[in-house]
């Protein structure tokens, strides 16, 4: 008698091993993430939401969707990686980590967007990073010893952002001036956030570990995205973002209070708003601190979408220009409607994005890094 093959169970295919099983299995497909997702708001498409993308990840992991399927490439690229979905997820899905694992597979080697490749090459070389600072005459002065071998010193160390050194050299100078106790090592390398977010996860984590070994004790960073990545790899207890740090420094508030009062008129106090760093807010939960700082020295105005992405999202503004501009346009309209004197950023990428949008809109509002604001270094305009 022949075997009834119609009832024979087909063997399950082996998982591809791209994703961490516990992370992928955590999603319960409730859909709470959809309203929080900027790209779902743009497209209205389920596949462009966190839930939809996790479905794609699962299909890729089980082999039910080929790795070269164009939908995978499109959605891995379209996602901002802002992690807003994590803050509303009842199951605690770590979507940011899943996205990093996804891009590690989708963007490996020559599959990585061409415009991102030279940025990673630059960030891999310490001498180039140091040169970026020298180009703008912003070679950092050492505040105390730069010894970094033990990693046990009680003296805090300033982490220098890779591209912030060239684009916004005033930021590290000003935070060092606000707190002379900060040690600055100009020979430090990249923290690896750029790599981890752009398909080179192992290198990103390795760079973070090396930086943690090089810089002793508490690491203070002026970049929200770097803070979240570094804390994830070497531990939250060792990483402090600038607004957290400055909140503890009475001198920072004292210096800026006089400047803020002299800038404001008697009829109209200085009006400032804030653009959150996505990874700082959604990854580390730091959002109250910058608001408290700003509220001490000016009239703080909460923008309706202050906690939503500005469209910079690391390399997103380079890789997905159309979508980035669409997101930014709504942000600029909000800023204009709020009639702000200053909009404050806590991340260099966000700052660059806002400056570009405000300049094109011919707005009177200036975009300023929170460190420059606290030092009172903003009356000259928004150009570093």
TrEMBL record:
Which Gene3D superfamilies does the entry link to?
Alpha-helical ferredoxin
Give the keywords, sorted: 4Fe-4S, Electron transport, Iron, Iron-sulfur, Metal-binding, Repeat, Transport
Coiled-coil parts of chain? none
Instruction: Return the broad EC class.
Output: oxidoreductase
E.C. number: 1.1.99.14
Q: Which reaction does it catalyse?
A: glycolate + A = glyoxylate + AH2; (R)-lactate + A = pyruvate + AH2
Q: Name one GO molecular function term.
A: metal ion binding
Write down the required cofactor(s). [4Fe-4S] cluster
| SUPFAM superfamilies in the record | alpha-helical ferredoxin
Q: How is the cofactor bound?
A: Binds 2 [4Fe-4S] clusters.
Record-annotated membrane-spanning stretches:
none
Q: Which Pfam families match?
A: CCG, Fer4_8
Recorded superkingdom: Bacteria
List, alphabetically, the InterPro entries matched. 4Fe4S_Fe-S-bd, 4Fe4S_Fe_S_CS, Cys_rich_dom, Glc_ox_4Fe-4S, Helical_ferredxn
Every 4Fe-4S ferredoxin-type domain range? 17-47, 70-93
Q: What does this protein do?
A: Component of a complex that catalyzes the oxidation of glycolate to glyoxylate.
Q: What is this protein called?
A: Glycolate oxidase iron-sulfur subunit
């Amino acid at each position: 008698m022949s075997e009834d093959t119609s009832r024979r169970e087909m063997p399950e295919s082996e998982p591809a091993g791209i994703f961490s099983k516990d992370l992928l299995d955590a999603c319960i497909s409730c859909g709470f993430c959809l309203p929080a997702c900027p790209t779902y708001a743009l497209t209205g498409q389920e596949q462009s939401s966190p839930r939809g993308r996790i479905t794609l990840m699962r299909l890729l992991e089980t082999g039910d969707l080929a790795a070269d399927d164009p939908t995978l490439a499109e959605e891995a690229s379209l996602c901002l990686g802002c992690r807003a979905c994590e803050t509303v997820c009842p199951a605690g899905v770590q979507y940011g980590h899943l996205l990093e694992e996804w891009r590690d597979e989708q963007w490996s080697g020559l599959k990585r967007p061409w415009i991102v490749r030279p940025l990673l090459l630059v960030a891999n070389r310490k001498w180039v990073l140091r040169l970026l600072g020298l180009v703008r005459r912003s070679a950092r002065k050492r505040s105390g010893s730069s010894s970094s071998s033990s990693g046990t010193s009680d003296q805090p160390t300033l982490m220098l952002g890779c591209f912030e050194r060239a684009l916004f050299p005033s930021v590290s100078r000003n935070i060092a001036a606000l707190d002379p106790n900060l040690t600055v090592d100009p020979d430090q390398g990249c923290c690896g956030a750029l790599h981890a977010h752009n398909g080179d996860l192992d290198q990103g984590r390795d760079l973070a570990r090396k930086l943690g070994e090089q810089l002793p004790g508490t690491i203070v960073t002026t970049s929200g995205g770097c803070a979240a990545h570094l804390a994830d790899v070497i531990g939250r207890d060792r990483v402090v973002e600038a607004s957290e740090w400055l909140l503890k420094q009475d001198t920072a508030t004292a210096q800026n209070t006089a400047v803020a009062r002299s800038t404001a008129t008697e009829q109209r106090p200085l009006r400032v708003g804030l653009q959150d760093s996505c990874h700082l807010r959604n990854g580390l939960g730091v959002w109250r601190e910058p608001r408290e700082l700003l509220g001490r020295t000016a009239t703080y105005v909460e923008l309706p979408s202050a906690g939503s992405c500005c469209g910079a999202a690391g390399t997103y503004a380079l890789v997905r220009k159309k979508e980035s501009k669409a997101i930014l346009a709504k942000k600029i309209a909000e800023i204009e409607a709020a009639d702000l004197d200053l909009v404050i950023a806590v991340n260099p990428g966000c700052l660059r994005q806002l400056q570009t949008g405000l300049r094109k809109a011919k707005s009177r509002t200036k975009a300023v890094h929170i460190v420059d604001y606290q030092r009172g270094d903003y009356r000259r305009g928004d150009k570093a």
